Amino acid sequence: MSESDRDELIDAYFDAMDADDLGIVRPALAEGFVYESLDGDLEGFGGLETYMNELRGLSETVHEVTLRVHGEVASVAEGTVTGESGDGTVEAEFCNVFEFDEDEEGITRLAVYLNDS
């Protein structure tokens, strides 16, 4: 899979987060998808829905990706996310690690790391 094909899958994730519309990313997720965050590991599209509807600490987000690195088995995107929380507007740095299925047609694992200090 080319870097641009991977970028399309990655962009679908960020677009879904910022639009608050998981339908955007659903086609980009492989069977057996795992979402890893500070809230723990969530499995499948249903796990991602649980994160969005029950666990996510920010709304009205805007992700600005400032760096992408593509390796043999994974891609990394880092940048800044701005969004609204109960305490007002929050800005945090993120680093997300994306892994893909063997055919690299879908995201199998997404690990999310935040630095909000």
UniProtKB/TrEMBL annotation:
Coiled coil: none annotated. InterPro entries: NTF2-like_dom_sf, SnoaL-like. It comes from the Archaea. SUPFAM superfamilies: NTF2-like. Residues 11-103 form the SnoaL-like domain. This is Nuclear transport factor 2 family protein.
